[in-house]
């Protein structure tokens, strides 16, 4: 008799536990899309030669609107610059397209890196530039 009561109590606890769980979330919610930044520009320049670096920003398949961009900057740093890069604000040349024009006064290896935050995501692609 005690065995039957114990089994009944355990069964009732399992039933109550299963009923108290939240239902699975609906799959109708919009899935996050990837923030893609296509960074373009020359990989080699001569000393004091000017180069244009452009970032094309898309979210999923659509170009990001300026209102959706929370932050965009380009960082230029000499290799082994120990975090002493300079940050430049690009100009917008179209929906989701930003660019800077810069030159390098000393030979060496540099990185040009875009820092982009939009729609709650962040992306930071970079290009290595050799200056002779």
UniProtKB/TrEMBL annotation:
InterPro entries in the cross-refs: YtkA-like_dom
Q: Which domain of life is it from?
A: Bacteria
Alphabetized UniProt keyword annotations: Signal
Please tell me whether the keyword Signal is annotated for this protein: yes
Q: Name one Pfam family in it.
A: YtkA
Signal peptide as annotated in the record: 1-24
Question: Where does the YtkA-like domain lie?
Answer: 30-115
Report if keyword rRNA-binding is assigned. Answer: no
User: What is this protein called in UniProt?
Assistant: YtkA-like domain-containing protein
Species:
Priestia aryabhattai
């Amino acid at each position: 008799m005690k065995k039957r009561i114990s089994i009944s109590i355990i069964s009732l606890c399992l039933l109550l536990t299963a009923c108290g769980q939240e239902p699975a979330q609906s799959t109708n919610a919009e899935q996050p899309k990837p923030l893609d930044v296509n960074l373009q520009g020359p990989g080699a320049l001569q000393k004091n030669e000017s180069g244009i670096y452009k970032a094309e920003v898309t979210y999923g398949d659509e170009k990001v609107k300026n209102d959706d961009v929370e932050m965009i900057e380009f960082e230029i740093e000499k290799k082994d610059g120990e975090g002493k890069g300079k940050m430049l604000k690009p100009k917008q040349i179209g929906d989701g397209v930003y660019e800077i024009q810069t030159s390098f006064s000393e030979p060496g290896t540099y990185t040009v890196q875009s820092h982009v935050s939009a729609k709650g995501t962040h992306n930071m692609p970079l290009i290595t530039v050799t200056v002779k």
